[in-house]
Amino acid sequence: MNQQINPVASVPPLPDLLIEPIVRATLAEDLGRAGDITSHAIIPADCYSELFLVARRPGVLAGSDLARLAFQLMDKEVVFEPLLVDGARLEKGSRIARVAGPARALLTAERTALNFLCHLSGVATITAQIADSIAEYNCYVTCTRKTTPLLRAVEKYAVRVGGGRNHRFGLDDAVLIKDNHIAVAGSLTLAVERARAAVGHLVKIEVEVDSLEQLDEALALSVDVLLLDNMSLEQLAEAVRRIDGRAISEASGGVTPESAIAIAQQGVNQIAIGWITHSAPILDIGLDVA
User: Which of 167, 213, 250, 263 has its CA 20 to 30 A from that of 141?
Assistant: First the structure.
């Protein structure tokens, strides 16, 4: 039975203007130099079909608009009727959308549509699992810049659909001072002072620390966010105590769905996880004949 549930209804869909170039490029990659020679050889030009996108297992839906564009860019006659919206909690067998039109176009676009839908729903699903598990601790899961090349916007969208939050989108929207920046600059203090002098007053400054001594130095500089990298649970608890609300605390490094709860219990504000975007297991979704 389909469930019209959207737990993150405030997440607006990405505009077609943003996602259409991604879908076009992916279709072009698949079509190659001669198009879909299999479908053109087997399917008559006047054959029309009605198909359904169906979830093979439970999860969270994301990427519907990319699937829609994949079909409709192949043929303007294709009708894409969504039966569920992004953010819906899927059951095994849930019908996601009805797709009808020229059969050649439907079969040609099938893999592109499913690649986007399965991957982004997988991102939303694992994000939701972790977000749900730590919700009682007032802690959020956030993604990173560890995204699939050229898919950052849609993968970060899927994280939001799953109930997570986005870290910076690129190198230009926040300062994140990491260990190599500190090593090249000469000191953490010097790195922060240079950053503060160079960027505008609206740009936040985050510093990665891997020891409590570095934490104390960063706190003295009044940075906005502290990235607690690969710290033990005991170190995280002590770091949160020392921060005492003066900055946002963000844990990172080797986080798993199983360890996320223990990390959240230490009182950090956020848990950053890179693999939820680039390595999330896909959600199995198929295209079935009506």
Answer: 213
Using alpha carbons, list the distances in angstroms from residue 141 to 35, 147, 152: 41, 15, 17
CATH number for the domain including 201? 3.20.20.70
- Coil, strand, or helix at residue 241? helix
Instruction: Provide the 3-class DSSP secondary structure of residue 167.
Output: coil
Tell me, yes or no, whether 54 and 160 share the same domain. no
The CA-atom distances, in angstroms, between 198 and each of 34, 104, 183 are 52, 56, 19
pLDDT tens digits, 204-235? 999 999 999 999 999 999 999 999 999 999 99
Catalytic positions, please? 111, 146, 178, 208, 229
Condensed to tens digits (0 to 9), the pLDDT of residues 15-67 reads 999 999 999 999 999 999 999 999 999 999 999 999 999 999 999 999 999 99
Distance in angstroms (rounded) separating the CA atoms of residues 268 and 249: 5
- pTM, 2 dp: 0.94
**Where in the sequence is the domain holding 75, given as residue range(s)?**
16-125+281-289
